[in-house]
């Protein structure tokens, strides 16, 4: 009785449950394919709190790997050190890439507002990625695209 009735019934029920789970997963997960040269944003995995931006970027898709991961390039032309899956990417408009945008390597100092000399917001001494320390500049808070 067990080998003729119970085990086949349990096996069939397990297959049905597995197929329902696969169908539910495929219905909820986006299966996007991004072409080379597409401009995307990347989901921030270490977002500090819910008020921080959910996505970082923009980045350009360099190529799609055999296993479905994407190699990305930032606005300075550097290839990102890790690869991303499609579910971590969000397509954006190509106009989002600003050719005049620079990437910050580090912030060296800051100074508070001083209305008496015309400085009305915090300023930061910025070391730019790809430039020497002699090219550091003081930039007001409003010049930053991403506050991180």
From TrEMBL:
Domain Chromo: 102-148
Protein name: Chromo domain-containing protein
Top-rank lineage group of the source organism: Eukaryota
């Amino acid at each position: 009785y067990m080998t003729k009735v119970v085990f086949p019934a349990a096996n069939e029920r397990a297959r049905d449950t597995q197929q329902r789970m696969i169908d539910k997963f495929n219905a909820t997960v986006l299966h996007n394919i991004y072409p080379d040269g597409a401009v995307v944003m990347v989901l921030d995995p270490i977002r500090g709190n819910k008020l921080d931006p959910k996505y970082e970027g923009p980045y350009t898709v360099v190529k799609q790997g055999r296993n479905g991961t994407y190699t990305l390039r930032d606005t300075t032309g550097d290839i990102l050190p890790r690869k991303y899956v499609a579910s971590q990417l969000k397509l954006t408009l190509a106009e989002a890439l600003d050719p005049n945008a620079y990437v910050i390597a580090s912030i060296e100092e800051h100074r508070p507002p001083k209305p008496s000399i015309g400085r009305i917001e915090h300023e930061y001494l910025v070391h730019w990625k790809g430039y020497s320390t002699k090219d550091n500049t003081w930039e007001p808070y409003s010049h930053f695209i991403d506050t991180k």
